[in-house]
Amino acid sequence: xxxxxxxxxxxxxxxxxxxxxxxxxxxxxxxxxxxxxxxxxxxxxxxxxxxxxxxxxxxxxxxxxxxxxxxxxxxxxxxxxxxxxxxxxxxxxxxxxxxxxxxxxxxxxxxxxxxxxxxxxxxxxxxxxxxxxxxxxxxxxxxxxxxxxxxxxxxxxxxxxxxxxxxxxxxxxxxxxxxxxxxxxxxxxxxxxxxxxxxxxxxxxxxxxxxxxxxxxxxxxxxxxxxxxxxxxxxxxxxxxxxxxxxxxxxxxxxxxxxxxxxxxxxxxxxxxxxxxxxxxxxxxxxxxxxxxxxxxxxxxxxxxxxxxxxxxxxxxxxxxxxxxxxxxxxxxxxxxxxxxxxxxxxxxxxxxxxxxxxxxxxxxxxxxxxxxxxxxxxxxxxxxxxxxxxxxxxxxxxxxxxxxxxxxxxxxxxxxxxxxxxxxxxxxxxxxxxxxxxxxxxxxxxxxxxxxxxxxxxxxxxxxxxxxxxxxxxxxxxxxxxxxxxxxxxxxxxxxxxxxxxxxxxxxxxxxxxxxxxxxxxxxxxxxxxxxxxxxxxxxxxxxxxxxxxxxxxxxxxxxxxxxxxxxxxxxxxxxxxxxxxxxxxxxxxxxxxxxxxxxxxxxxxxxxxxxxxxxxxxxxxxxxxxxxxxxxxxxxxxxxxxxxxxxxxxxxxxxxxxxxxxxxxxxxxxxxxxxxxxxxxxxxxxxxxxxxxxxxxxxxxxxxxxxxxxxxxxxxxxxxxxxxxxxxxxxxxxxxxxxxxxxxxxxxxxxxxxxxxxxxxxxxxxxxxxxxxxxxxxxxxxxxxxxxxxxxxxxxxxxxxxxxxxxxxxxxxx
Length: 816
Known about the structure:
The chain has 21 helices and 38 strands. By secondary structure, it is an alpha+beta fold.
C-alpha cells in the first residue's frame, strides 16, 4: 500500500524540518526517488515551525553565502512546481550601527558582497529614516542597505520542499520514531523504527535538536546543543507598512520584521542558557519554553529605544523556543568519519531557514556523486575532536555561540568558555613569559606575548593595536636573531610496518623513498586531484615514518591514512601527538644557538635542509629536523614531555646572547604569508589542485607507485583552470587586511584574500589570495605591471601582486 512503510529504500532521511525536506527534494530532483523521510511527530514540529524566517543572502563566509543565495533563487521554481506558496517577501534589509567599529565591520561586509554580485550599500541617516521610518537614529553612526534580503514563512517553505519531494516519488512518514541506525562492518545497513525495520544504503541525520543524541547511539559525534532563544510579536500596529524592510541593530542585539500588520522583534541574547541538558523531552512537538524575564529585559529596553512605537503598543506573544547551536558557530554537513553511508546535516546556528535549501542541496550532491561537489571542509564532521561533542563542553560553548551571534567580531577574538582543556608541557613556562593564549581544538597556544611581568590583555580593533606591536617585535626577532614557538600541538602520526613506504607512496604526492634521517614536504590528494592535506614526513628508520600535520588537520589526516590501509598490508597508523613536546626555533642566529647548546655539527654541509638526527640539549636527548615555516633558517626539536621544561630553560639561558624572543601564532602567520607558504583550510582545501597553488613541484607523477589523484591532477593541470594563488601586498602602509577582502583588477573583481597579516619586513599588509583570470595564470612581469586593488572598508587600495612570495623568493635564507 502507498501509505505503508517500505522494508527497503536507497536513502532514509531522519527528521522532517526544513533540512530533511530539502535533502529529500534535491535527491528526488536528481532522480533519486527511492527515498524515505521519517519524522518522529509532524513536519516542522521541532525548531522549523517557530523560526523567525529571516532571509539574508550575505553571510559571514563563502559557503553559507552560497547556501543563502541559492535559498532565494530556488523559491520561484519551487512555488511554480508545487503550487505551494513560501511566503517569501523581498523587502530588503537595513542594518544600523551604534559604534564606529561596527560601521567598519559593516563596510567590510559591503565589500564582501562584491564577491557574489550581491547589491549592498552604505547609506546615510536620511536614507535609513526613509527606508525604515520607525527607527530612532539616536546614537546611530551609519547603516547599510541590502535590497535582496527579506523574509519567508518557514512552515510554508518546508511544506513546499516536502510537496516537491513527494511529487517526485519520495515517501514521507510522520509519527514514526527511529529507534536505531543499523551499522554492520562500518557501513549503514538500515534503520529500525517503532513500526518496522527499513534496510538502506544511506542514512541522513537531519533530526535537529535530537541529532546529537541519535548520533551518539553509533558513536557519531555531532557538536550541537539546544539553547533558549526569544522573540516577541506585538499587537497590530495601525498603518504599519507591509513592505517594511527587516531592520537589524546588532549593537542593540535586536532585529525587527513586519509580520501581518504586527512587528516581530527578535533578540541576539547576552544572557543565554542551554536547554535539554538531560535530553529533549520525548513528547516535544510544537512546544515553547517558559519566558524568563531577566534573560531578555536588557535587550528589550534597547529595542524600545531603537523602535519607539514599541513603547505604545501591546505585546501579543512572548516566545521562547529552543534552537541548536554549535561549539564553533558552523554547521555539521557531511559523512561521518568512520561510518560509510551515515550523513549529517545539523547545527546551523539559527540560520536553518536562510541556508536550509542550499545545505540540503549540497548534502544531496555528496550522496549522489560519492563526494562533495563544493568545498565543505569548514563544516566537515571530522573537523572536531571527540570531547567537543560532550555535554559539559557544549553546555558552555553553545550558549556562547548564541551570545556572540550579534556581537562585534574582531580579528583574532577568542572564546572565553571551555578553555584550558589541552595544555602543552610548556604551558606554564610560556604563561610566565607573558603569553596571551589563543585556542584551537582545545589546545591553548600563545597568540602573542605581552611585556614581561604584565598581564596580557587583548586590544581588539579593526585598526592597529598593541597586539600587533608585540607581533611585529616577534617577527623582527625571527628575521634578525632567534624566535621560538611551541609546536607541541602539531599533529604527529606514526606510520610503521614493512609496507609503510609503499603505503605512503600511494597516499602522498612526493617521493617517499627517502633515506632514514631525511624529510620531505608532501601533499595528499583526493581522487579528483584536490588537496586533502599538506604535511611533513620524516623517515626515522626503514619501517617507521612520522607524519607532521597542522593542529587542525591531525584528526582528518589520521582518519584518511587509517581508512586507506589495504587488507593484508603491513601498516600500522597511530596518533602520537602527545608523545612528544616540540619547539620550532628560527632565525639567522638559530644555527649558532643550537650548535652551542648541543655541540653538534649543524653546518649546512653536515646538516642540510630536510635532514633530521638525534642531538642532546642539557641532559635531554631529542630529535632535531631542519625545517622552517617562517622563511628563515629554522629547526624543529622533538623531546619527551617530561624534559620539555628543562630543555626550554636551558635554551633561555642564552636569551640575551642571541636575542631570543618567544613567538606567537600571529607572528608566525605573518612570516609564512610573507614567504608565500600555504595554510590548509584558508589558502587551499579539497577543491584546489596543486597547480593552482604553485606547489605542483611536490607532485612526482612518474613514481613507480602512483599517488591517489594523480591522473585527475594531470588532467586538471592540462586544463589550466583557475583560480590561482598569488601573493598580494598593499602599497599603502596604513590599511589592514584580515581575509575575505575582494581583489580588483582594473576595477573588476577577480578574487579574494584568503589569509592576511601585517608584515614587519615590508611595513605593510601582506596576504595570499585566489585570483581568477580569463586566460589562465599570468606571469610575474604582467602581474606587477597591471592595476590591482584590494577593497578595504569601501576604498580600493592599490596593491602589488606576485606569483611568488615577497620574502626571499630565491630561498637563500631557508637553505643557508
